[in-house]
Structures are given as C-alpha cells and as structure tokens.
Amino acid sequence: MNWLIRWNARSLASQFFIMGGLVSLGAMFVIGLIVTHLIEDAVIHNSGAATALYVDSVVAPLLPDMQTESLLDEGSAQALDETLGQGALGRRLVSFKLWRRDGTILYSNDKELVGKTFPVDGKLAQAFAGSLVARYEVASDPESAEERSLGRALMEIYNPVLQPWSGEAVAVLEFYETAEGLEDSLARARLWSWLAVAGLTAIFFLALSILVFRGSHTIEVQREALKARVDELSALLAENRGLQRRLQLSSQRAAALNETYLRSIGADLHDGPAQHIAYASLRLDSNLLVDATIQPETREKELAWIRSSLAEAMKEIRDICKGLVLPQIERASITEIVKRVVEAHQEKTGTTVDTTIDEDDPELAPALKICIYRFIQEALNNAYRHGGGVEQAVSATSRGGGVRVEVSDRGEGFDPTQVRSASLGLVGLKERIDSLGGEFDIRTGEGGTTVIMTFAPMEVEE
C-alpha cells in the first residue's frame, strides 16, 4: 500500500503524465503494428498484383484449355520452359507451378514435382475461390523445399486462371520471385508508418499534457488558496473559541465582582453613613431634648452633635455616590478623560499626579472610554492606599486607534502572587480589560509599581 500512498501524493499532472505516457506508448505500439501490417499487406499485394498481371499476360496465351484438368502437353510445357527460363521474367522468377483444383501440380520448372498431389492449403483454396494471394516470407509449404533452401524471404504469388466467358478459376499459377527492392520498400514503409504514428501520438499526448498541466496548476493554486483559507478560518475559529471562553469567564467574573461590589457598597454604607445616622437617631431619643427642665444651652449642644452626625453621614453618602457615578465621558477625548479623573483624585487625596498625554484624537467606543476612566481611577486609588501616593504619574498615548495607558508610583511595591483572587481592584481591572480584548500588565518591585493597559488598533477602532 506504500506505492498507492506515494502515488496519491503525486499531483494530478504527474499522475496523468505517467499513466498517459504508458497508455500512449501502448496505444502507439498497437496502432503502429496495425498500420504497419496494413501497409505491408498493401505493398505486398500491390507488388504481387503487378507481377501476377505481368506473368499472366505472358504465360496465359501459352496455356491450353484447362477444362480437361490433365497434365500439360509436351508442347505447352516446352513453351513455358523457354518463356520462364530466359529474359526478364526468367531473372525474376525463382520457381513456377500450375495447380489443379485437387492439389495436383500440372506443371513446374522443377520436373520432379509435375504430377504430384499435395494437400490444398488455405492460400491455394483462396486462389481457387478467385482471389489473388500474395505473401512475402520464407517458403514453408511441403512442395517448396527448393525455395526454402535459399534461406531468404521471397514473394509468393497465387494467381487464379479464369475462364474468359464464365470467370471461374480453372487453375492456379503459383510462382516465387526474388522481389528485388521490396524489402527496402517494406523497410521504408515500416519506418515512415512508425514515425507517423509516433509523431501523431507524441503531438496528441503533448497537447493533452499542456492542457492537463495548466489545469493542474490552476487546481493546485486554488487548492493552496483554499487550504490557506481553511487554515485562516480554522485559526479564526480557534481564536473565536478562545474569545468565547474568555467571554464566559469574564461574564462569570463580572457577576461575581458585581456581587462583591454590592457587598462593598453595603459595607461602606453600613460602616459609614449608617453608623452616623444610628448615632443621631439615638441622640434624638435623649431626655436632653424632651425634658423641659434641661437648660437651653445643653439642648442646643445636643442638637449640634446630631447635626454633625447627620452632616458626616451625608458627606460620606455623597463621596460614595461620587465614586459610583461617572461624569459625561461619551463625547470626551482621552485628554479630557485623563484630566477629569486625575483632578478628582488630587482633590480627594490632596496629592499631586504627573500627567503626560499624547493622542491623535481617535474615535473610541464608549465602553473603552469608561474602561480608561476606571483603570486610571482604580490604579491611582491603589497607588495612594498601598504606595502612599509617592510620585504618582499617568501616561496616556493614542496613535492610529491604539491606546496605551500607564499609571505608576514610587512606593514600596508588592508581590503580585499575593493578591487575592477576590480582590476588587486589580482583578476587576484585568477582567474589564480582558472583556474588551485588551492586555493588562503589572510591573512592581522595590522601585515602585506600574500598571499598564494596552489596546491594539484593530481591537479598538469602531
């Protein structure tokens, strides 16, 4: 089966060239044999017919009436001996026989054969049926021992002797001639017939090969293009599957983070404003406010404590709301987004942030603008809470639709492997960026921390 595998691995053109070449050679051989045989038969028959006509024109007048089917009389035999033994006819003819229908030789230049009877073979029977028979071969008949002793091919001709008034064959003239030049004629006929068959077969095969090679080349080009397309689609399918898995994980993480955010907000409300409001509520039930005997100064002081607790609760509620509600950034540029979040951070923390912005005013999706805002906001908050807000810096670059934002500080740094998976800050940033097809990176050490968000141009253009 290895040969079949190797054969199938070949191109269609190569398979056609091999198989077509073998078939063409076989067809050329068969057609050549047939054509050569037909041409040889035609040449031999025409040559024999010409010789038979010549011999018949010379010999027939010397023959008596053959209806008696007896041996030739002495006068006719002598006339034939003189005619066949001299002149051009004598030089061409090797032997001569006159046959009767029953296979008896009525006359022969070999006198020992006269009167003998031999089996009627197919050639003799065909001649008595009225057909001229011509063969070019080494004599093999029983009565042709002398011709066979020459050891070379001779022209053997059987010419029927016909009655003029009925057309019936009454005898057959058999003679062998040297057929000088016939072998050369046959050789030329064979050569030209083989050359013609080989040339036509080669032209036909080459013409088909050109068409097949062109078609095979077109098929190979289309096959390569199709293979490249299939590989591309396979790669896209694998990428889509990967994105689908990332999307599923991001959705799961987003749901978990939303719950964590809600718990965080609930904890902030419970630990902050709720405590102040509960404190104020308790003070409202104090006897200092309802006892008429209490001094107005004491009552006023109690009310001041209540007002202070409620004011503190309102301030914390506003701070929480301010962190949840984004400013209008759908139509804002990257420069405006960075300035807004940096200014809000500086006002809240009282720290300074070094800002560097380089943009070509790209068209960004609203989701990406929100991601930029939250990324800088969360990164600055982490830099302030964990790095002490030392030398905070924000760098934003946008070229050709690609976005790169870096937030850094010169704090003590931390070990990224120690970050809990339930942490809202870094995990939330990474999940948000991954869900939009971007890349998130952290570089931290003793010299400080840098968080990086990157979006390639094709990922962010809308």
Automatic annotation (TrEMBL):
Keywords per UniProt: ATP-binding, Kinase, Membrane, Nucleotide-binding, Phosphoprotein, Transferase, Transmembrane, Transmembrane helix, Two-component regulatory system
Molecular-function GO term, any one: kinase activity
Nucleotide-binding recorded as keyword: yes
E.C. number: 2.7.13.3
Membrane spanning stretches: 12-39, 191-213
Superkingdom of origin organism: Bacteria
CDD domains: HATPase_UhpB-NarQ-NarX-like
Domain Histidine kinase/HSP90-like ATPase: 367-459
Catalytic activity: ATP + protein L-histidine = ADP + protein N-phospho-L-histidine
Pfam family, one: HisKA_3
InterPro entries: HATPase_C_sf, HATPase_dom, Sensor_HK_TwoCompSys, Sig_transdc_His_kin_sub3_dim/P
Name under which the protein is recorded: histidine kinase
Protein source organism: Rhizobium viscosum (Arthrobacter viscosus)
